[in-house]
Amino acid sequence: MGHSRIRSSIKGRPFRELTALCNHNANSSAVAGQVLQAAHDDLNYEQLKNNTGYQEAVKLLAHFGLAAQSKDFLGYLRKIGLNLPDRSSIEDIKAEAMEHIERACAGKPYTDLTEISINAIATAIQSAVDKDQNGLLWSPKSEDYLASLAKLKKAENYAALGQVFFGEVMYRALQKYVSRQVTTIVGVSERMRTVNEKRNFDRELHDYCMENAKVVKSFCVDWLGLHEHKLHDVDTALPGFATYGMEKIFKAMSFYEDKQ
Asked: Would you say the pTM of this structure is higher than 0.90?
């Protein structure tokens, strides 16, 4: 996606406008630049490719889309290693998705990115259900949850799932880097001083990341469409999907940061 398409697809704002909220406007450009650079350095191609937790989370992102295309959603997920009961609740599905990733990480480094990825995929799964069941007049049952997740076969729903996952990874990562860089650059005394300031900043940061993550929506749908009929090729093609998804968001953020 070129810069012109990035600009037309999202309502961008410079990241320095957000950092001004957390350091009382002191050196906001310096903070923004260093936070984005630190995040990009840590979430580079090699780090993303070699982080088992992140790769497994993206694998689930892909397989949830493929499960929705199948005739047996739970059956498909069981075939790829998820231990799910017949009447699975959304909590069962999220918990098993998280445990599935943790099992894959056994004996390997458990990093911040691993934890971020586990929480991001759980949030994305929940978002698919919340989006579909908003306004229900009854408490959802297992079949309601599965019906909602089966709707991920629709392009617009799978696109939203991808946006939430990649956006959540970026949001949770930037939270860490903002805290670290603000203290380093402007000192503890200039940081956010109240719970309300922190809550407001987190809300703005989350909106910022989700807005920029719109650039991955069509990418997710196109990638899944390319590989859904070549199931043997999905897992081998995942590293490129996982790494380029994050890179697209970084490019979108950098585009608006360069606009003075």
From this structure: no
Q: Report the pLDDT value the prediction gives residue 98, as an integer from 0 to 100.
A: 97
How many angstroms separate the CA atoms of 199 and 71, rounded? 43
Instruction: Report the C-alpha gap between 220 and 164 in whole angstroms.
Output: 11
- Read off the pLDDT of residues 178-229 as tens digits, 9 standing for 90 and up: 776 655 544 444 555 667 777 888 888 899 999 999 999 999 998 888 776 6
Copy the structure tokens of residue 90.
Answer: 């959304």
Q: Record the tokens describing residue 237, joined without a space.
A: 């093609």
- Compute the distance between CA of residue 1 and CA of residue 45 in angstroms, rounded to an integer: 18
Euclidean distance between CA atoms 46 and 57, whole angstroms: 16
Alpha helices in the chain (DSSP H): 3-9, 15-22, 28-42, 45-50, 52-69, 73-79, 90-104, 112-133, 142-150, 155-186, 195-212, 217-227, 231-257
